[in-house]
Amino acid sequence: MKKVQQHYDEIAEVYDRRYDSRRGRYYHGHIRDHVMEYLPKGGFLLDVGCGTGLFVQRYVQEEGQAVGIDISPGMVRHGRKRCPDCGFFVGTADALPFRDDSFDALASLLAFSYVPDPEATLDECYRVLAPGGRIAVCTLSRTVFTSIVPFIYRMGERVGLKGVGVGNFDEHYYTNAEMERLFCDAGFEDVTTSRCSFAHLKLIEPIFTLARKAEPFIERKLPYLAYNVCASGKKPEE
Ligand SMILES: C[S@@+](CC[C@H](N)C(=O)[O-])C[C@H]1O[C@@H](n2cnc3c(N)ncnc32)[C@H](O)[C@@H]1O
Question: Which of 12, 22, 46, 129 could form a disulfide with 235 if both were Cys (CB 3.0 to 4.6 A apart)?
């Protein structure tokens, strides 16, 4: 975990540039919108692995209140700048420093692949959600395209390549079935999984434009080709 923290501290300054381009804005915006669909609007949200606060900002735009937590103090610093009225905390997903039943909504975007203990992380998410609260976790899934990514990132580290996410972090990419099992085992009900995003920011034009056009079809009809899995659920009412 220390290595992930160091990596994100190092790239915190440039992280948002990744999503400043037209492609980047579309890619992350699409994921944010997708996650929003599974959460109650206007509640109190915790974003786990919040990074620079992109989703915290999105959530509070719809009348909600939000706090974020991230292992990287560098990323958290940028979150505080982006949303000065929201709370940002440094901490790990598997030991959340919040009281039981504190939040109406819990989100995690593009961070779950890093957590070394997914069961402990979801137990913590369950604990801090209020009864009836909803959770949505969007993370890289294992597909024909993504299976090779951890290998490329490991090789990248060996040859001294720099970039967001480049390194050997023991990442785990999940199938829908794995996410469903993890959510059910943690005690969530109404568990669903969907696939999200095919137009990746790293695709060059005009492939990106084509992928963007095909994205709704891929997500609905060929979901195993979409890059991210979004798992959602609800903490049972008491
Ligand atoms: C790819 S970034 C995503 C950030 C943000 N959610 C977004 O969508 O822009 C992954 C984030 O997960 C954080 N992270 C990794 N492992 C973590 C852990 N165990 N607990 C909390 N945050 C973690 C990293 O520090 C980093 O900010």
Answer: 129
Beta-ladder partners of 232: 136, 192
Ordered by where they begin, the domains of the chain are: 2-232 (3.40.50.150)
Distance CA 68, CA 87 (A): 6
Atom of ligand 1 minimally distant from the CA of 12: 27
CA of 208 to the centre of ligand 1 (A): 25
The model's pLDDT over 154-183, given as tens digits with 9 standing for 90+, comes to 787 777 777 787 788 889 999 999 999 999
| Below-50 pLDDT ranges, the chain | none
Q: Which DSSP string corresponds to 24-86?
A: HHHHHHHHHHHHHTTS-TTSEEEEET-TTTHHHHHHHTTT-EEEEEES-HHHHHHHHHH-TTS
169 CB within 6 A, ligand 1: no
- Single pTM value for the model: 0.94
Cβ within 8 Å of residue 71, ≥6 positions away: 1, 4, 5, 8, 49, 90, 91, 92, 93
Ligand 1 atom with the smallest distance to the CA of 72 is 25
Contact 122 CB / ligand 1 (< 6 Å): no
